[in-house]
């Protein structure tokens, strides 16, 4: 934010970076070969629904758009913090389709002026031993971070840092660890 | 290309600009007067700068200490941290420290010299009374204060007032002890005294006005951040309602910190109060939130 914007107290809402999402398929290959994490085919977009009719209309439009194909239906849910999650299930083998769907959600919201409402996207991965991993994309930063939940709201920081090292060449990993916020129980994990 | 729902409020920007301009003008007038008195005044100036700088530099710790607040870890207050985490990710700002003040007065404040060194603090009374959406609205208002660097802006603005206060004191005590017996210097002394008093009074009013505009700005930015102006409005109504019902003894203890607060701790009783208060009247804040709600709701 510029000097004048601070002076006048007129911060503008942050606009999302939509393009980095397309780095996910290549990162998934690295994850599978180097760490044994395979995509579950689940991905979700999280946003803060604005009050009023306009946003509800856009959200209905997005869901109709994604449900237009033959695949599984999109599930919408609201978490305890008031954020809406759209869960898009897909065939695990074609991750590019999932990314295209996620991008459709983002770009529709952004086209209607609700880009600042986008919080994050999660693409789910799972290892043969049952361990789960979410690749979280921060729209406003244009960066990713790994989120590895354990039981009782704890997270496996060692695994997350290991994944960070693995993915450094495939996508932009969020350098500021304080922004790796936990997303317990997020749809798509 | 993505369209934007951000509609700038030119009136608010202009009024704020005017306030800042007038403050600057006062500062210039005051500097002109200072040139008449070199000597002690320079020392006073240095002292006031140092004091203000320290107040600004340590603002996060000073406010937390004064409010008996303490910084809490994510393990201690997972809900509060989760809300702040999400708001910071939405706004693309670094996460400030999160604090809790153990008092039943429902309020929240944000201080710190920069967005990287900031503290957002909520009282236990606030968290007890508000639901998650309202709490989020209040925190987004506080985070907007951080993003707008309000502590820095208000510190610089209050510099003029502090300067005038020092000058008045020096003119009163320093002048009496000096005894130069010169008609000319006595004349200068009286002029300086008068000017300082007037400057101080004016800067006081202007700083209050600036504070009110910045509250409105923070309401606006906060409401746009969450997309829920109504949740913020409902938090405002609830807090001001609750505050009115609490005995005033508790509240007076926290009064000096009013400027940092989400809602002022003492309800004003007389009509002139609007000129002196650090926060705009409730109706004005609600009206602005209503407008934002309407703008968000229109298809576009």
Look at the helices and sheets of chain A and give the structural class: alpha+beta
Q: What would you report as the Rg of chain B, rounded to the nearest angstrom? A: 21 Å
> How would you state the average pLDDT of chain B, rounded?
77
How is the biggest beta sheet of chain B arranged?
4 strands, mixed
**Uncertain stretches of chain B:** 176-180, 266-271
| Count of individual helical segments of chain B | 12
Query: What is the helical fraction of chain A, as a range of percent?
Result: 25-40%
Given as residue ranges, the uncertain stretches of chain A (5+ residues, pLDDT < 50) are: none
Give an overview in words.
The complex is a heterodimer of chains A (189) and B (300). Chain A is α+β, with helices and mostly antiparallel strands and 189 residues long. Helix content of chain A is 32%, strand content 22%. Chain A contains 5 helices and 6 strands, in the order H-H-E-H-E-E-H-E-E-E-H. Chain A has helices at 3-8, 24-35, 53-66, 95-111, 157-167; strands at residues 38-47, 75-78, 84-89, 118-126, 132-138, 143-147. Chain A has a 6-stranded antiparallel β-sheet with strand order 2-3-1-4-5-6. In chain A, helix 3 runs antiparallel to helix 4 (95-111). The relative contact order of chain A is 0.21. By secondary structure, chain B is α+β, with helices and mostly antiparallel strands. A 4-stranded mixed β-sheet of chain B has the order 1-2-4-3, with helices on both faces. In chain B, 44% of the residues are buried. The model of chain B is unreliable at 176-180 and 266-271 (pLDDT under 50).
């Amino acid at each position: 934010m510029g000097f004048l914007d601070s002076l006048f107290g007129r911060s503008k809402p942050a606009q999302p970076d939509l393009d980095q999402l397309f780095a996910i398929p290549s990162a998934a290959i690295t994850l599978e070969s180097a760490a044994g994490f395979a995509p579950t085919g689940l991905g979700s977009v999280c946003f803060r629904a604005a009050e009023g009719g306009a946003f509800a209309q856009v959200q209905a439009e997005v869901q109709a758009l994604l449900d237009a194909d033959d695949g599984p239906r999109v599930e919408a849910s609201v978490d305890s913090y008031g954020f809406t999650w759209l869960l898009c299930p897909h065939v695990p083998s074609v991750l590019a389709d999932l990314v295209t769907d996620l991008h459709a959600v983002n770009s529709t919201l952004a086209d209607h002026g609700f880009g600042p409402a986008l919080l994050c996207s999660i693409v789910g991965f799972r290892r043969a031993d049952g361990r789960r991993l979410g690749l979280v994309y921060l729209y406003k930063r244009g960066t990713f971070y790994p989120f590895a939940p354990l039981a009782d709201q704890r997270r496996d920081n060692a695994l997350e840092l290991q994944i960070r090292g693995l993915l450094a060449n495939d996508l932009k990993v969020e350098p500021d660890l304080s922004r790796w916020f936990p997303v317990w129980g997020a749809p798509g994990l | 290309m993505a369209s934007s729902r951000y509609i700038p409020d030119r009136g608010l920007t202009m009024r704020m600009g005017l306030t800042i301009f007038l403050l600057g003008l006062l500062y210039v007038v005051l500097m002109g007067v200072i040139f008449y008195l070199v000597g002690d005044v320079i020392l006073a100036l240095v002292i006031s700068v140092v004091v203000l700088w320290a107040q600004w530099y340590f603002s996060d710790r000073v406010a937390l200490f004064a409010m008996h607040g303490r910084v809490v870890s994510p393990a201690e207050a997972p809900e509060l941290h989760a809300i702040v985490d999400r708001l910071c990710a939405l706004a693309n700002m670094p996460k400030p420290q999160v604090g809790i003040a153990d008092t039943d007065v429902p309020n929240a404040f944000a201080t710190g010299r920069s967005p990287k060194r900031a503290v957002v603090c909520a009282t236990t009374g606030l968290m007890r009374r508000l639901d998650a959406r309202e709490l989020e609205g209040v925190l987004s208002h506080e985070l907007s204060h951080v993003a707008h660097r309000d502590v820095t802006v208000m510190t610089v603005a209050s510099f003029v007032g502090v300067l005038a206060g020092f000058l008045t004191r020096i003119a009163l005590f320093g002048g009496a002890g000096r005894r130069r017996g010169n008609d000319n210097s006595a004349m200068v002394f009286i002029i300086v005294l008068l000017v300082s008093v007037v400057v101080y009074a004016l800067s006081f009013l202007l700083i209050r006005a600036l504070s009110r505009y910045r509250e409105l700005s923070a309401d606006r930015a906060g409401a746009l951040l969450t997309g829920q102006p109504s949740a913020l409005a409902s938090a405002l109504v609830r807090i001001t309602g609750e505050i009115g019902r609490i005995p005033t003894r508790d509240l007076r203890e926290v009064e000096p910190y009013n400027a940092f607060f989400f809602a002022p701790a003492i309800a004003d009783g007389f009509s002139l109060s609007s000129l002196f208060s650090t926060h705009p009247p409730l109706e004005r804040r609600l009206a602005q939130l209503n407008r934002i709600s309407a703008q968000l709701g229109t298809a576009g």
